[in-house]
Each structure stands twice: as structure tokens, then as C-alpha cells.
Amino acid sequence: MPELKTLLLYLVTAIAEIVGCYLPYLWLTKGKSSWLLIPAGASLALFAWLLSLHPTAAGRVYAAYGGVYIFVAILWLWAVDGIRPSVWDVVGSLVALLGMAIIMFAPRNT
């Protein structure tokens, strides 16, 4: 069960980061309101706080998180941008998730 909790925490963390980056993107490239920077800042603060909840070394958390971020970014591409991922997008994100699983769940003595 701790593996599922870790994965869910990573998913929520990735969404917070992507939202925090996507809102300024809308302002800078799509002419949306600069007021979007307020929820963007809050979302990025939430992202940083969520990363701190993982019970392992920060470097390991950041390395493993990258794999989940890639996976969620591909889902975002499809769900929000309306672009269907290619087979290579899917394969790449699955490889990234495998890397995350190896980093986070490998047996350790420390």
C-alpha cells in the first residue's frame, strides 16, 4: 500500500506543477489575464510542499518524480491540449514510469 500512496502523491504533485507552469504559459502566449499568475504561484507552492511529504532522501524523490512528471505531462497533452499522444510518447512515458519505480521501490539497506 505505501507504493500506491507514493504514486498518488506523485500524481497530485505533478498536476500541481503543471498547472503552476501552464497558467503563466496561457498569460504569456495566449493573451490570458495576468491574474492567472496568482493561482499559478499558489499551485507551485503546493507543488513544493507536496514534494516535501515524501519519506525518503530529497534527491531520490526528485529523480523518481521526473518519471511521473513525464507521464502526467503526456496525459496533459491529450486531455488539455487535445493532442493525441503518439505511440512513442506512450512508450517513453512508460519507460519513465519504470525508471521511477526502480528508483523509489528498489530494496535498500539505508
Automatic annotation (TrEMBL):
Name the record gives this protein: Small multidrug resistance family-3 protein
Transmembrane segments: 7-28, 34-54, 61-80, 86-106
Keywords: Cell membrane, Membrane, Transmembrane, Transmembrane helix
Regions annotated as coiled coil: none
Membrane topology of the entry: Multi-pass membrane protein
Principal location class: membrane
InterPro entries cross-referenced by the UniProt entry: EmrE-like, UPF0060
Gene Ontology CC: one annotated term: plasma membrane
Pfam families for this protein: UPF0060
Cellular compartment(s): Cell membrane
Family statement drawn from the similarity comment of this UniProt entry: Belongs to the UPF0060 family.
Gene name linked to the record: ynfA
